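DM between two lab members

TW: hey, do you still have the Golgi apparatus membrane protein TVP23 homolog entry open?
JB: yeah, one sec
JB: this one, 203 aa:
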Amino acid sequence: VLQHNDDTEDVSLFDAEEETTNRPRKSKIRHPVASFFHLFFRVSAVVVYLLCEFLSSSFIACMVTIILLLSCDFWAVKNVTGRLMVGLRWWNHIDEDGKSHWVFESRKESSQENKTVSEAESRIFWLGLIACPVLWVIFAFSALFSFRIKWLAVVIMGVVLQGANLYGYIRCKVGSRKNLTSMATSYLGKQFLRQNTGDDQTS
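TW: and the structure you got?
JB:
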């Protein structure tokens, strides 16, 4: 069952994988390939942007290379590394009426949760996810104030693509807390109404 819009769905992602990877939680990296590519594309895009004037005299070649790296990074982080490294996933769903719904999923919490997520991988995932968009925002201001107008399109694409993944995974991570907040607010509201109703009856 999918839960749409602003809700976060607690689901068990790829059950077969979880059954074979329920090992004691350690600091070791359990998905080295996913961890490598989680950082490779986004770090490579930043390096190419910083060194493009030294690597090539062609602006078009540098721009295409950066856009390809950013696109590969967006796909890899959104579809692969998030679910493997931290058990989170976000995606878009179009229903039969043609309406678009955003779905934010997290691995179902259980007694085995601490055994399916590596602390080292979690640190790598969130560090790369947060640091690189911050760098692209800095690049955007730098390009704007230094009047490097031709680079603005590339930098804005970096902000948008990596910022979208950051936003999506933050929604996956904190969605359950929002649900708890709404439940607490609803409970307090009911208690407040009951108290006022009781006071009216006694008076």
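TW: got it. Residues 32-185 form one domain. DSSP finds five helices and three strands in the chain.
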